[in-house]
Amino acid sequence: MLPIGSHPVWHPVFETLAYAAGYAVFRRLRARDGDVVREPQRWTVLAAAAVGALLGSRLLGLAEQWPTVDAAWHTGQLIWLMFSPGGKTIVGGLLGGWLGVEIVKKISGIRRRTGDLFALPLCVGIAVGRIGCFLAGLADDTYGKPTSLPWAVDLGDGIGRHPVQIYEIAFLVLVGLLLSIRRPLAEGARFRIFVASYLAWRVVIDFLKPQLLIYSLNLIQWSCLAGLLFLAVGWLRNRKGLDESTAD
Description:
By secondary structure, the protein is mostly helical. Helices cover 67% and strands 4% of the residues. The longest helix has 29 residues, at 219-247.
């Protein structure tokens, strides 16, 4: 068992580094590969992604902690809880940002697939942020269940746990390497590969986290399944459209 301890002071540091690293990768890819939308449209898409991610992350994070929200409601501390640090989820941010972009694209009449430039930056940003989650230990809600495996980590309570954040970092590195391979793909495919991979990963890895379950799954897992279902429906619709155009 590896003694790690809990160091919550590092969480905001690596959260800030995650945003900076993700944006740096985005700018580099955009300068190297160009963009499918014009400058004003890209900034509109970025703004929609940021607002949607912020709202989605917070809302799903609070929903995941419903007993705490309910207690805050009855004690008159709900407003404080809404604006307190913590209580955010990556899955909520990913789904919220995606929804925000789709809404703005519909309003603005943007018909191109705009997500490919986000795929690798998201891999990098989430991986860097997970370092902060790992160092925060018991102060963060992402720690793993107890285990007797030799690489278990002690976060300060003397209990060996799965280092689930390290598992996720390794997974993101693998996905990032695959996405970095410069091969021809349909527009939007890289983003959808990332989203599908990450949501599927979270369905699996969250079984190793001590979370409140609803019909054998936690709220994050149900959200991931909903996102995967939406992706599958979109893929089938696109496939049907391609088949019809080929028949014509």
